[in-house]
Amino acid sequence: AAGVIQSPRHLIKEKRETATLKCYPIPRHDTVYWYQQGPGQDPQFLISFYEKMQSDKGSIPDRFSAQQFSDYHSELNMSSLELGDSALYFCASSRRDSGDNEQFFGPGTRLTVL
Amino acid sequence: AQSVSQHNHHVILSEAASLELGCNYSYGGTVNLFWYVQYPGQHLQLLLKYFSGDPLVKGIKGFEAEFIKSKFSFNLRKPSVQWSDTAEYFCAVNFMEYGNKLVFGAGTILRVKS
Question: Would you tell me which of A20, A93, B27, B47 could form a disulfide with B59, CB atoms 3.0–4.6 Å apart?
Answer without folding.
Answer: B47
